[in-house]
From TrEMBL:
Stored SUPFAM superfamilies: FAD/NAD(P)-binding domain (SSF51905)
Phylogenetic classification of the source organism: Bacteria, Bacillati, Actinomycetota, Actinomycetes, Mycobacteriales
Known cofactor(s): FAD
UniProt KW keywords: FAD, Flavoprotein, Monooxygenase, Oxidoreductase
PANTHER family the UniProt entry points to: BINDING MONOOXYGENASE, PUTATIVE (JCVI)-RELATED (PTHR43004:SF19), TRK SYSTEM POTASSIUM UPTAKE PROTEIN (PTHR43004)
One Gene Ontology molecular-function label: monooxygenase activity
Domain FAD-binding: 6-338
Keyword Oxidoreductase included in the entry's annotation: yes
Protein known as: FAD-dependent monooxygenase
Pfam families: FAD_binding_3, Rng_hyd_C
């Protein structure tokens, strides 16, 4: 590392997104400083679970087991919803189930432990107040209890949430719609109410309640004719309890509030995810109604897409243009996220005028193709990155965790825990293995075969990126493996070439 740098990459914000970025960079051995303005981790429960794709991401780094090691049991389910209309993720037979009722604090704790085990502790009490891209470096001006310090790195990733200072100071455009409503939220102990997991439509608005562990219920309430909010003022528990009583007739005022908050339906997206040496991820890049619980999930997946690419660029294996694929791939996901959550918001929070539409969408979900379409959107399993000209249905999608014969690991995801590339050779083809050998320092090769047909056309081999997406397949793309290896993994190590 250049002696004038304090680190290779500064990550601003140790929420789920920043932790994921830092973890992925550390998996590749990159030097990282992870800053957070908070002196202690937040205790706000916020995001309450994982979509099936996030569960897969966690499985690909061996992180699922860490929850039980901390004494946290995961309540897995294939039950989901689209704007309050029940939806079954079980239509993706090859997917991991999602998780519900898991406060975000547990997720952050697991990610923090993982990142710490990889050699990076969160640097707390460090508030970034300015960011300057100098062309060959990026500088962060950091406030530490009133003292200013300048930190210098090759890249900086803004994972500093919806009010991102990085986004503002680095000049990112952030456009969309402002909030038109206010949804009140409280985590309450001892209020003794019946669950309304995916919400209940009532004459004056919508009420939702769900147990989130430790005897606490999450209460969410939106009155149709209530005020909109910029959420600058924290609501009182009394205002939540009053709104709940007006809608449901139930008295929860005797409950003990653990956390009270409010959110709206502002919907905004950064027009670029990269400006030179500064990148954005998570809520810093996209804000929306937390319909379907997608914010944290999308942020973690942004980080999963970015980390290995940034590591390859910092290592000098690939040019900075690789980072444009981060924008290309994840900005498209962000756009679709905004579309999806706006549609869900209309269905979920709309009044009686939406009732016919809800009924019709409920009927349509009965058709498998519709169900697959909507479940793909909400679960993250529909995400297909552009990979070139091939037409195999798996190309660009995430590799499913199929069972394998011939490996100790038994299925695909445990083969990805080292965050390297993976060539799965299903037909014991020596010429393929020879072709990949010069990249042996960054790609694992496994010869195995699927235990069962998994519903795709003939597949002789598959190249999987470190984020689990399929970058190349044989026989469809035969002849282009070397091009795919160069594109995603850089130039090979000459010393590893056959015969050398
Ligand atoms: C009420 C509510 C319910 C939600 N429910 C769900 C759900 O069910 N499922 C779901 O997926 N998502 C949900 N979300 C959204 C989810 O909480 C966010 O999308 C998620 O926290 C985003 O993660 P992040 O790491 O991008 O940002 P954040 O979690 O906001 O983390 C940003 C971090 O940056 C730090 N920071 C900020 N500014 C600076 C600075 N200048 N310098 C240094 N550090 C800084 C902060 O202290 C913080 O630790 C919900 C959100 C809310 C508000």
């Amino acid at each position: 590392m250049d002696a004038s740098f304090d680190t290779e990459v500064i990550v601003v914000g140790a929420g789920p997104t920043g932790l994921m970025v830092a973890g992925e960079l550390r998996c590749a051995g990159i030097d990282v400083i992870l800053l957070d303005e908070l002196l202690e981790p937040t205790t706000e429960s916020r995001g309450l679970g994982f979509t099936p794709r996030t569960m897969e991401v966690l499985a690909q780094r061996g992180l699922v087991e860490r929850f039980s090691e901390r004494g946290v049991s995961l309540q897995t389910t294939t039950r989901g919803h689209f704007g309050g209309i029940p939806l079954d993720f079980g239509v993706f037979a090859d997917a991991h189930p999602g998780v519900v009722g898991l406060p975000q604090v547990h997720t952050e704790a697991v990610l923090r432990d993982w990142v710490a085990d990889l050699g990076c502790e969160v640097t707390r009490g460090h508030r970034v107040i300015d960011v300057t891209d100098t062309g060959n470096a990026v500088e962060a001006l950091v406030d530490i209890s009133g003292r200013s310090v300048r930190l210098r790195a090759r890249f900086l990733v803004g994972c500093d949430g919806s009010r991102s200072v990085v986004r503002k100071r680095a000049g990112f455009e952030f456009t969309g719609t402002t909030s038109t409503l206010e949804v009140l939220l409280a985590d309450v102990r001892g209020c003794d109410i019946r669950p309304r997991f995916i919400g209940e439509w009532l004459p004056g608005g919508v009420a939702m309640s769900a147990a989130i562990g430790d005897g606490i219920d999450r209460i969410v309430v939106c009155e149709r004719d209530g005020p909109s909010s910029d959420h600058a003022v924290q609501p009182s528990f009394k205002s939540v309890a009053d709104a709940w009583q007006r809608l449901t007739g139930e008295d929860i005022s005797h409950g003990e509030p653990q956390w009270v908050s409010a959110f709206g339906d502002a919907t905004k997206l950064a027009s670029d995810y990269r400006r030179g040496r500064v990148l954005l991820a998570g809520d810093a890049a996209h804000v929306h109604l937390p319909a379907g619980g997608l914010g944290m999930n999308t942020g973690m997946q942004d980080g999963f897409n970015l980390g290995w690419k940034l590591a390859a660029v910092v290592r000098g294996r690939l040019p900075e243009t690789l980072l444009d694929s981060y924008h290309e791939e994840r900005h498209a996901v962000g756009k679709r996220l905004l579309l999806n959550t706006r549609a869900q918001g209309l269905l979920f929070l709309g009044g009686d005028e939406m009732a016919p539409l809800r009924t019709i969408i409920g009927e349509l979900i009965g058709y498998e193709a519709v169900s697959v379409h909507l479940a793909g959107m909400v679960s993250g399993l529909e995400i297909r990155y552009p990979m070139g000209t091939g037409s195999h249905p798996l190309l660009g999608l995430r590799m499913p965790d199929i069972q394998l014969a011939g490996t100790q690991e038994q299925s695909v995801y445990p083969l990805l825990t080292s965050a390297r590339g993976l060539l799965l050779d299903f037909v014991d083809d020596e010429s393929l293995r020879d072709e990949v050998r010069p990249w042996a320092d960054r790609i694992d090769v496994v010869t195995a075969s699927p235990v069962a047909d998994f519903g795709v056309p003939r597949l002789d081999a598959v190249l999987v990126r470190p984020d689990g997406h399929v970058a190349w397949v044989a026989p469809d793309e035969m002849g282009s493996l070397t091009a795919a290896l160069h594109r995603w993994f850089g130039d090979p190590d000459e010393a590893l070439k056959v015969g050398k």
